[in-house]
Amino acid sequence: MDFFESIAQSFTKTFITDDRWQQLLSGLGVTILITLVAAAIGVVLGFLIAMVRSTYDMQLAGKKCRSPRDVVLKILNAVCNVYITVIRGTPVVIQLMIMYFIVFASSREGIVAAFLSFGMNSAAYVAEIVRSGIMSIDKGQFEASRSLGFNYRSTMFHIIMPQAFKNILPALGNEFIVLVKETSVAGYVALQDLTYVGNLIRSRTYEAFFPLITVALIYLIIVLILSFLLKKLERRLRNSDH
Amino acid sequence: MTTDNVLIKVENLCKSFDDVEVLKGINAEIDKGDVMVVIGASGSGKSTFLRCLNLLEEPTSGTISFEGVDITDESVDINIHRQKMGMVFQQFNLFPHMTVLRNLTLGPTKLLRQSRAEAEANAMKLLERVGLADRANAYPSQLSGGQKQRIAIVRALAMNPDVMLFDEPTSALDPEMVGEVLEVMKQLARDGMTMVVVTHEMGFAREVGTDIVFVDEGVIVEQGSPEEFFGNPKSPRLREFLSKVL
After folding, report:
1. pLDDT tens digits for B46-83?
2. Distance separating the N- and C-terminal Cα atoms of chain A
3. Over chain B, what HEC string results?
4. Contact B161/A at CB under 8 A
């Protein structure tokens, strides 16, 4: 059997036999689904945590509580701190397994466990990115807005956030790129994502080359598309001021 | 002068940052139409005094009544009163992500519930007043320092305030741009706007000030009309200061 023949055979085994290309496609679907839902959870939750933390930093850090609202804020801030410490201090695959084998022990909802654990994991990182963006805005912007009569919330919404968002876009994009690849451990909780399917094909066919390289290429293409979209968004935002 | 004329009344205002006592009991009255010019060395507390007037700095003790309302009272919604107190900063603090026009209309449309068209018409009138109507659609980063500060002044004016607070408005400007900003402020004073100005521009103080205040080490050391203040300074500290800056 000559060289080209053996390549053709490997290719056929990897993609054509048993319609394995369809398994890869459905694995890709699972990966994208987990990533999108987790990113949405991560952005919303991360944004809320960042609001608590930066409001605390700006209004209460180093001061005494003077109202019930201050006490609530202080407690919320402490909770957020613990959350970020724990999430960032443990591997995401452990968090995923805890979610699946302990929290969802009775129902074994793998996909929901993945949404939640990847989302909650991402939120911790997004929170710190957003907070750094808020803190990067000059204090004078805040004061100018307050001096016009805007309250804290409107100032955040109209003045601080739009500027902060532009500053953090590259870091936020990086977080999404990391997230796409992090979902590759979803196989630990019996989800058939892209990586799992690739590995499955490898073990069925005893062909390592095509399945693994294909999976790697698909991740690469996803990341390239993501980078391209982010760069476009960045450019558009930059054009809005000079 | 009748009490009806008093716009801002400051009583025994104290402010400390941690252990540092910056203001040690300031009393002042600003009448409608007054142009109070606050002078003093850096670190004397003059900017802190100004920033306390609209509570950008929270006073440690003392009261500030604005249009008869004690705004240091915790139950007062300070945002309402700040709408009536325009403020201009040393560093301009224009909103860089908005056009000049949007900088001017944001407050009026969101806070005063003006329609966009109404706010824009008003903004264009103000821009014409300071000779910058042609820059309405520019972004702040495309403007010179003097232009930025003139925009910052009309941004505050767009809220139709009862008093304008100026925190060293010309200190961050190149020398050749100081004049254009002072000219706008002088015009404003001539139109009868009540102003409190922290500045090092003695010429401005002498020309348009109605009430000059010298702050040193957190207290008002001397206060008077420009004639007696510059012509016949009484305290040795003020004489020393004036000999250095004049």
Report:
1. 999 999 999 999 999 999 999 999 999 989 999 999 99
2. 64
3. CCHHHEEEEEEEEEEEECCEEEEEEEEEEEECCCEEEEECCCCCCHHHHHHHHCCCCCCCEEEEEECCEECCCCCCCHHHHHCCEEEECCCCCCCCCCCHHHHHHHHHHHCCCCCHHHHHHHHHHHHHHCCCHHHCCCCHHHCCHHHHHHHHHHHHHCCCCCEEEEECCCCCCCHHHHHHHHHHHHHHHHCCCEEEEECCCHHHHHHHCCEEEEEECCEEEEEECHHHHHHCCCCHHHHHHHHHHC
4. no
Q: Mutating which of B95, B143, B166 best tests the A interface, going by the most A Cβ atoms within 10 A?
A: B95
Which chain A residues touch B141 with a CB distance below 8 Å? 241-242
- Distance separating alpha carbons of residues A124 and B124, to the nearest angstrom: 46
Q: To probe the interface with B, which of A59, A142, A148, A161 has the most B CB atoms within 10 Å?
A: A148
Phi, psi of B161 (to 5 degrees): -80, 165
Residue type, A60: L
Q: Do B82 and A149 touch, CB atoms closer than 8 A?
A: yes
pLDDT at B1 over 70: no
pTM over 0.90: no
